[in-house]
Design goal:
9 strands; 27% strand; 5 helices
């Protein structure tokens, strides 16, 4: 009798402790997802899937200016950098795949837009060819990387990079002092 009582109390205790996790509120994004990153329009739905599942405050800040150096755009959620976008000059002829391998050693990647965009679940790269703009030695690469506690999502990363790339102005990228 005593052992069945102990089993019953143990089962009840397990049921109470096990149900405690179910009653807690589900984490959610309390912040408004940005529609642009440092002046470049992006698909906010794709960006939302890369940002942390929960958080209260998001901020976007640019470090550096394109006409003087390679700018860096940081997305912060609750004081944690969760996504970084960098734009830089690369040797003419480099592919987006080369950039992603060079930066992160990522050989497992998908491509879009005829290879102009490559991506994985945690990073993406693109290359804008500048030969048509009169710049023969260099092209412009954009690199996006998600950092923890940001979330990995291959499809969202591809959509974010393609949307970002489609919003860029190749002429102003290739000749930053022309505007």
């Amino acid at each position: 009798m005593r052992s069945s009582y102990a089993l019953g109390v143990g089962a009840l205790l397990l049921a109470v402790l096990g149900s405690g996790g179910c009653s807690s509120a589900e984490a959610k994004q309390e912040f408004t997802v940005p529609t642009s990153l440092c002046g470049v329009s992006v698909p906010s739905e794709a960006l939302s899937r890369l940002l942390p599942a929960s958080g209260k405050r998001v901020s976007v800040q640019q470090q550096g200016a394109w006409d003087k150096e390679s700018p860096l755009c940081e997305v912060t959620v609750d004081k944690h950098i969760v996504l970084v976008v960098s734009t830089e000059w690369v040797t003419a002829g480099w592919s987006a795949q080369h950039v992603l391998v060079e930066r992160l050693g990522l050989w497992q990647q998908k491509s879009a837009d005829g290879g102009a965009v490559v991506y994985s679940d945690r990073a993406a790269a693109s290359v804008v060819k500048c030969q048509d703009a009169g710049v023969k030695k260099f092209d412009v690469s954009t690199f996006i990387k998600v950092l923890e506690p940001g979330r990995r999502d291959e499809k969202a990363m591809g959509q974010l990079m393609r949307g970002y790339n489609n919003s860029l102005k190749p002429q102003s990228l290739c000749n930053p002092t022309s505007e």
